[in-house]
Design brief:
With 362 residues, the protein is α/β, with parallel strands linked by helices. It folds into two domains: 166 residues, Rossmann fold (3-Layer(aba) Sandwich); 155 residues, Rossmann fold (3-Layer(aba) Sandwich). The strands form two sheets. Strands 1, 2, 3, 4, 5, 6, 7 and 8 form an eight-stranded parallel sheet that branches. The longest helix has 28 residues. It is globular, with a radius of gyration of 21 Å. The termini are close together. The relative contact order is 0.12.
Amino acid sequence: MPLVAYQRAHGSNDFPLHFAFFEAMEARGMLDRITFALDPMLDATYCAKLMLRFPQLVLTETACISRRAMRFLSEYIGRAYRPLAFLGTFDAVCEAPGGRINPHYSTRSLFHFYPRTRRRAILFHSIEAAAMQNSAVSESVGSCDLVIARTKESARLADKAGAKQVIEAADIVFRTQVHQPIYKPGLAVALRVPAYNPPEEFIERTRCILNDLESLGRPIDHTRTEEPIGAEMIARGYGTDGQPRIGLYGDDAMYVPFQAKRDLVISARLHTTLLAILYGNRHVLQYQIEQGTNKIAEIWSDLGLHALRVLPPDEVTRERVNEFISNPTALPEDQVQTALTKAREKVENGLDAVEEWLCRVK
């Protein structure tokens, strides 16, 4: 069977993406026709979890001796493993779903560990204009047989870079089917802190929001925020008997608070919001915190969910949060359903293209 390297599968914030993709491949019978080899260089533990759920998957280091040597050298020696990338032989390589093609994560060729593999695809990804200013990134996008973009702007950038086939789709997680979600009283909250040199003023605003949420006396489930706020959440006793009304979820469980109908949702992440809406939540306050990306606003705008306003970082204030809690406005149901239908259709069109591409890999 054709051997396809699947790179950059990792857990925590991208946990739902890879499971959704392989569930789609399983449903289409592709896991029995294609050997997907997970690249464990980024997150070996998460790859093991995927293989437990999908036993047809293998590791690149199992399928290729040079990859096994790369793994060993990366752990015990360091950067000396890189020349071994030229020894790896795969029929194709694909960039796993996500949003990593932005200037913070992508600063060189996306396929620098697979220089001899000419059949390339990018699956259900956002592509940021600032990342494409890097010639190595732009050239690697342009070298792809197939790009499945999850926003209209990403598709435009991939087409401009010269990719052979570009499909405008949506996020793969929209494929998730939810039947009769449970109701869990209280709030689901996913605050964020900018990952790069967060201003102290922003940190203090976040602390004030946590203080106000605590004072509500209502059940609240938080995803653990980036540092230093994450450590402060632990110090406050979130998720312990010391704060019985306040839960704290991290790592692979970070999306659990949003997989139920809640009274209110406050989210600075894409997939906490996406899953919350799939699970029937309509009272949602959405922020965009990440630098160098407009992916959240682009995704909802492309789907026509214009009622879901994506607020910028300077509007992450206690006043804005308290206003939402006191007077939440529901997203229009007809607009939500139209957006979800459109998203699922676009995802299936993207999966059709992936299946066709895989069938051509030899």
